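Lab notebook: predicted structure, single chain.

Context: the supervisor wants predicted structures on file for every construct in the current expression panel, including those that have not yet been purified. This is the next one on the list. No modifications to the sequence; it matches the entry in the shared construct table.
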Amino acid sequence: MLSILNNISSLQAENSLNSTQMSLNSTLQQLSTGQRINSGADDPAGLAIANGLEANVTALTQSVQNATDGVGMLQVADGALSQITTLLNQAVTVATESASGTVSNSQRTALDNEYQSIQSEINTIGAATTYNGQAVFGSGTLTVFMSDSSSAGTSSITVNMAAVSATSLTLNGTALTTAAAAGTALTDINTAIAAVAALRGNLGASSNQLQAATNVMNNQITNVQNAESGIMDADIGTTTANLSKYTILQQTGIAALQQSEQMQQGVLKLLQG
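Prediction complete. Output recorded below exactly as produced.
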């Protein structure tokens, strides 16, 4: 039916063309960004889930760094304790020599001076060993915080980082000035070696625990990123097919709109006739 007041076919063609143009614009945006969701309007629920997953990845990535830093600090501590063990072995040598009856008093004085220097060096290592600007020993505990940004996914690993010194190793006050004193000191030195070994064992176990946690978190990051990608990433094959479809629909829509306008011109011709 021909109408003067309203060109219904033209309005229908225009509405269809506008809808096609919106779909085409959305498809082009998906292809240019590689993402299926580019605004909240595309998929509100999907966007909310993806944003939550992104927060998980961000927290897990930093947690991996926290654990890596913790391992680094424990490695520094272990290196320092290794040096202390070397010093204690030197102390064993001088104490054993001083305990012998073949050593003169003046020689024992020299040996004791070396022994006191060893103790001073142990004190220096215990006080001056630092990581990231903070003392490694004497801080009480090292707490490594890890999280996936949720309360349920939060955990921490605590490591005892007690003070290390000649006093804590029960060497302070011992001397090698007599054979008897040297024998007593030798016992204390062996006890100190065992204590340092135990401390290194604890640090090693904690380091292994942190490395295991790092492996788990890296696996989580991969899985969460895959889940986020499944929600956010555009299906390039489908999107490309849609591009062809909407491009054709756009062209046919324009043709239909032109045809409807020509039909309206027919009304004028009837009036002119």
